[in-house]
Design brief:
The structure holds two protein chains of two kinds. Chain A is of the alpha+beta class. Chain A has one domain: Histidine kinase-like ATPase, C-terminal domain (Heat Shock Protein 90). Helices cover 39% and strands 33% of the residues of chain A. Chain A has a five-stranded antiparallel beta sheet, with helices on one face. Chain A is globular and about 40 Å long. Chain A starts with a strand and ends with a strand. Chain B folds into two domains: 147 residues, Globin-like (Orthogonal Bundle); 111 residues, STAS domain (Transcription Regulator spoIIAA, 2-Layer Sandwich). In chain B, α9 links the parallel β3 and β4. Classes of the chains: A alpha+beta, B alpha/beta. At the A-B interface, α1, α2 and α4 of A face α9 and α10 of B. Chain B: One of its GO terms (molecular function) is oxygen binding. Chain B: Keywords: Phosphoprotein. Chain B: It comes from Jeotgalibacillus salarius.
């Protein structure tokens, strides 16, 4: 069972909208404040990556319910330049924009599952799930 | 043709107004009308009707001025733009059907009348959309200014100590202001220690952290120390998860502890008066 809501990321303020959506859904599903902060931070990172590197894209939030386990899945979709070396971007401290380079590896640590799919020139899709415990 | 229509509208005004209102209410726009109390809808739609009529009658004489006033008023009435557009459309249909019903126009010339009515309405709807857009743009820019004003103030609390409370989302523009105000303030107030309070920042992601770290390094360069205060427990955990290194910072959970520490660093402390 999945219910999806999406936010288009076109400018910096859409990141805030995506975050707000994520926080509301997380709250509804019954996540605690710490997990809410983790989820919103993860959304913030992924949405900002779309804004910074792809220019535009979509960020969707799924409400999951698998075998009685509730969860929240973040899907970040863009048709940007893609990531040539995924192993490299998952290393702490690697950044092409002069940032901290903690975004993607950080998201992996903030969430439970993390899956990245990227074709150079085609775009990137990142799916990441947090389960309610 | 023009006078015929205007005359007809004037003559059957009450009837037209009633049909028009019923149509607005019953034609699926209930979602919008539901949120409005009945009497407000009644009085506003009467106003609306008046204004449309006024525009029709006064065509040619100070038409432009009237049109502008009209749009301003419609926007002020606070109707959703979709409802206003629907109102104009329904007005055309109501009048046209009424004209046919009373036999005021010939069946074969119906198209011409409809065209004429449409021609009247086009500049009105253009003007209204324009006014709506301008009002929104104005609101947005005013809010932007208001936001900038409360963006990143640096407050000198005691000699050598200043505080910058940050409330709300930090975007690139604001991060730039934080840096500027911090450096200006440190130099102007001759601060030794500045406290950046992030109690009111909802999310600290790598970008926010990066900006704060940069600001702190810049403060260091002008010879002051920077302290990060107001780190809530959940923010502390996400910062750890993200793997952000804040070791070079002095951090405290609350502003109170931060101020005490800052006083200590500048060789002072708060004592209670005896007696």
């Amino acid at each position: 069972m999945e219910i999806q809501s999406c936010v288009s990321i076109l400018n910096e303020w859409d990141i805030v909208a995506a975050r707000q959506l994520g926080r509301n859904v997380a709250k509804e599903l019954g996540f605690g404040t710490v997990d809410q902060a983790r989820i919103t931070t993860a959304i913030s990172e992924l949405a900002r990556n779309i804004y910074l590197y792809a220019g535009e894209g979509q960020l969707c939030i799924d409400r999951l319910n698998e075998n009685g386990k509730a969860g929240l899945r973040i899907i970040a979709l863009d048709k940007g330049p893609g990531i040539p070396d995924i192993r490299k971007v998952m290393e702490d401290g690697f950044s092409t924009s002069g940032g901290l380079g903690a975004g993607l590896p950080g998201v992996r640590r903030l969430m439970d599952d993390f899956n990245i799919d990227s074709d150079p020139g085609e775009g990137t899709e990142i799916r990441s799930t947090k389960w309610l415990r | 043709m023009y006078n015929k229509i205007a005359g007809h509208i004037e003559e059957h005004r009450e009837e037209l107004e009633k049909i028009w209102k019923d149509r607005l209410i019953n034609d699926g726009e209930e979602r919008i009308i539901d949120v409005m109390p009945q009497h407000i809808f009644e009085s506003t739609s009467t106003d609306f009707f008046d204004i449309i009529l006024l525009n029709l009658k006064d065509k040619g004489r100070e038409y432009k001025v009237k049109l502008v006033n009209f749009s301003d008023k419609v926007v002020r009435l606070g109707w959703p733009v979709a409802l206003v557009m629907k109102g104009l459309r329904e007005f055309v249909h109501t009048v046209q059907e009424n004209l046919v019903q009373y036999g005021s126009i010939d069946k074969e010339r119906e198209g011409d009348y409809l065209e004429l009515l449409d021609k009247w309405m086009t500049p009105i709807s253009n003007e209204i959309v324009q006014t709506y857009a301008e009002t929104w743009e104005k609101t947005v820019s005013l809010q932007k200014m208001a936001l900038q004003e409360l963006s990143a103030p640096l407050i000198p609390v005691v000699d050598q100590i200043s505080v910058m409370p940050l409330v709300g989302t930090i975007d690139t523009e604001r991060a730039r202001l934080v840096m500027e105000n911090l450096l200006d303030g440190v130099v102007n107030h001759r601060s030794e220690v500045v406290l950046i309070d992030i109690t009111g920042v909802p999310v600290v992601d790598t970008m926010v952290a990066h900006h704060i770290i940069q600001a702190a390094e810049a403060v260091h360069l002008v010879g002051a120390k920077c302290m990060l205060v107001g780190i809530r427990p959940e923010i502390a955990q996400t910062i750890v998860n993200l793997g952000i290194d804040l070791d070079r910072f002095i951090t405290t959970s609350t502003m109170k502890k931060g101020v005490e520490l800052a006083l200590e660093m500048t060789g002072r402390k708060i004592v209670e008066l005896e007696g």
